[in-house]
Structures are given as C-alpha cells and as structure tokens.
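Hi F.,

I've been meaning to write this up properly since the lab meeting, where we talked about keeping a consistent format for the predictions we share between groups. The idea is simple: the sequence comes first, exactly as it goes in, then the structure tokens exactly as they come out, then a line or two of notes. No screenshots and no reformatting. I'm using this chain as the first example so we have something concrete to point to.
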Amino acid sequence: MKVAVLGLGAEGLKAVESLRKRGHRVYASDIRADIDLNLEGVDVDLGFHDTERIASSDAVVLSPSIFGTGLWESFSDRLLCRVLRGHRDPVTVAVTGTNGKTTTASMIAHVLESSGWRVLLGGNAGGGFDGYTEIILRAAEEEFDYIVVEVCDMTLEFASECFDIDLAVITNLGEDHLNFHGSMENYRESMASFLEGRAVVISADEPHLEELTSGARSVMEYTPYRGELVLEGEFNRLNAGAAAEALKFLGVPSDVISRHLSVFRPVAGRIRSFTVNDALVVAGKTDNPHAMRALLRESNFDVIFLGTPRRSEEWRLGILDEIAESPPEILVLFPGLDDTIDMALEHLKSLRIPSEILTVHDPGDIPEMVREFSREYRRILVAGNGQDVIIRVQEELEGLASCL
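Output, unedited:
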C-alpha cells in the first residue's frame, strides 16, 4: 500500500516507522524546511506538501496538528483510519486529561487483559506510545476485544474522527499545552466538545464538571480508590478510581477489579520510589505545574533534580513557581527535553527562592549525585521534563537501591 504521511513531528515519525516495518511504501512531507531527518528508503519533501503525490496514495496519515486545515478537507476520505476499519470493531476506551493518562489507561488494560480479554493498549506518540497509526495497523492485523487509547489533549479532534469511542475517561484538567490551547477556557471548551454524546467517567471533584459534561450521553463520577495498591500517592489513587469506574462500566466485577489492581506495577517513567542509603528517592515525569503541585502537596523534599522543558514551551517553567512554594535545600537543574537550563536560571531570578542552585549538563551524572546526597538528605526528588532521561535514571536508581 502507498501511504502519504503529512507532518513529521513525533506522531508522523512514529507513523512512518510503523508503516515501513510492515513493508508499505511511504511518501512523507512537512511544511517545515529546516528539520533534520534521516528517513532511509522514504521519499521526503520538506517545506511543502506535494498534493499530486498525496492524491496518488492509497491512504493518508495526517498529523493531528493538520486536522481542520485545507489538507484535511482535501484528503479526509483517504485517511488511513477510514481506509482500514479493524480498529472500529472493538469496544474502545479513550483516556484523556492533563496528568495520569498513561497510568489510568494501563490500569484499565491490565485488568481487562488479566481477565482474559484481548486488549490493544496504545496512544499518541508524544506520550510514550508508538502512535495512533500503530493502533490502526495492529487492529487491522489482529482481533481485539478492547482498545484502550491514551488521547493527548492536543489530539482530541483527531481521536474523535479516527476512533469509535464507547467510553471517555477524564483524569483531570490542568495547565498543560497552553501554547496550543491558548487558555484553560479554550481547553475546557475543546474537552466539552470531545465528550459530547459520549459516556463519560470523570472526577467527582472536577470543578467544571457540569460545564464539561453538559452534552454527555451519561456521566459516571469517580473518587479516590481505597483498595490495595502497589502505587504510591493520592494522585495514583485518583487514577485507580478512574480506572475502576471505567471497568465497572465495562461490566467487570468489583472483586476482579480489586484483585488485579492490587498487583499493578508503575509504568516506566512515572512516579516510583526507591531507598538509597536509607533515604527516600522519588523519581518520575512531572512535566507541568499541575503535576508538580499534586506531588508537592503530599511531600516536601530536601533535594530536587528538575529536568527542563523544550525551548518552545517556556510556560512549563511554571513548575518552578510550584517548587518555590515549598523550596528544597538544593535544586539541581538538568536538560530534560532540551538543554534549557539557561531559561530555568533566568526564571528563578524572579522567584528568589532560598535553595542552593546547581546545574548538571550530563543526566548520566544524576544517579551518582543522588547516591552522594542520600548520605546527608532524607528525601530526594528527580522529576520535571524528559521522560526518556528519567526512565534511564530510574533504571540506575533501581540498581543503586538493590546494591546498598
């Protein structure tokens, strides 16, 4: 099959990878001319989209950012998610919101799979999954009873077009991707549109619950889960509460839910705890102010290692404002998604926090620094932006914890 992939951000690049490994012929293009790509065996145009080549393709994959544009209008009938239909058949649960999406989606999939169902778990490429195209292709190759898909708040329209969603699970709405939404009001409007006509699971404490669910077909409210969990933190009890309510909607008995949730392990890159030299070390992606606020509400830390955001996402530096409310003795900045330590240092000037500020430009140095700090300090946090970096740190910390 000849497939045109338009837009070569995280989602587009994952789509190219998924298509290539299955032997499809791929034409890829991006309106940006200054991106550095190495896509061997793929015809690539940068700076423009060749509409003739797109028109000659059997299917088209559009970056979610292109939805609603002229390209979408021209080629909507040839979208891969319309050419292939296998992903339309399984019962589909969409998990969206600001924080906790991956954990909640993984919990739902874990319980369903442990109960004997065939489950496909996936989501947007930016969230650590292999992208929406991988879900569509796998569902065309195999039979599944359920699809559990994590939906980024920037791809709500895309998901509405490409999946037949039977249940929408909302974790929370916080300050994330404001460069895309423009404001929290716009974000809520987009979410309300996404939920319209659907069965919805949403927190009973959501302050804009009525506004968000006014057009929903049915609404189920969840509260923090109080059963046994391996995962720590009240925020994970909220994730488990959302998962449990979704599973009840799907007809899973309560005793089955509790049995399988009790053994669910943390997802790589998300919040985990380690003991190093008798010190508590907490590590996990915490990439927006809302997530950091939730974490610091439960505990103060003597030392915080913080990964910095992309240069284009300066608003994420609001994480530092949250840290300033409960400043550690030592704050260590490291490159998370980009080396934007300079931006973070500039932002800190206005906060005047009393912490000692250190920087480390090689994240590979962090585990040894944690080991040294753990000899003096009792509570250490490694968080912020940079999921891949934090996963590597977690792997090193696991080794440290097991050896000491």
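Notes:
The chain has a mean pLDDT of 93.
The longest strand covers residues 25-30.

If this format works for you, I'll send the rest the same way.

G.
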